[in-house]
Amino acid sequence: MSKIALKKESWIIPLIVLLLAALVAAIDGFGLWLSGWVAYTVLLGIGALAIYATWKAVNPSARATNAALASFALRLGFGIALILLLPVVGYQNNIEHQAGYVYTDAYIRDNQAWELAISTKPLSDAFSGQYSGDQYGGMLATSAFLYRTLSPDAHRPLLPIIVGATLSAIGVLCLWKAAQAWLDDRTALLAAWMFTLYPESVLLGSSQMREGIVIPATAIAFYGLSEVLARRRSGWLWLAAAATMLLCIQPLAGFISFAILAGIWLLDSSTLRASRRRQTIPIIFLVVASLLVVMLLVSSILASLPSVRGSGPVVHSEMPRMR
After folding, report:
1. Do 170 and 65 meet the contact criterion of CB atoms below 8 Å apart?
2. CB 138 within 8 A of CB 250
């Protein structure tokens, strides 16, 4: 990249962040505009840095970059539209719609996150099973952290949506790179745009739903594996980041995703060639068996958590609605 292009990026990106934060703060109408502008500037700035760092690492084509930017804009724009329009065009007798939420579980979880944020309780209480809105606690803790650190003066539901939109853009870039490494440029671009435009993905990413984080985290894990197979150490960092997000937000999805990735790794031609040369096939099967045992043990532990089992009739009655 030329010095001129780098200099141009150094002022264009911050300017876009400042203007977008000002616009979002003016639109949302929650609390004081200045407080909202500061909160959105900080979160959008961190998101812009994360997207830019991924963009530099992946080095995508212009079309793949456009898909990533479109993914961010779609989810943030649709999230704003839902908050503004649902109270007007939604069901008048629906509490969730009147509050700007599509999903009941998102409404419960996000409001409980706000209650935790403004309380004196530690954020670790999100994992204690006291809150029916999140049986795992990861999404609840994440939202509560955002509210407590960036928006203690007012409940701003767009903050979690910005996180989801940011991760979605990163997920598009990672999926494109991984698909390019395994397949070809045309298929990679098709996968990136499918990820960007798939209707349910857009809707979930525009709501305060854990799937808005789980879906891009899976794409990040896919990219991490492709880097590991290419003998790049950075792949392990991507896998670790994806595993952390998945296990905190949705452990079952994390187990399934990494089980599939382990199967891809075992069946990859380079892995098979290396195993034949080093006669490590028995070791591989031993590792896989150990992983399965660990997964079963962890699943058993998770099933015993109060936040999963529920601690009373009220929690049990709400659990079928939780995602």
Report:
1. no
2. yes
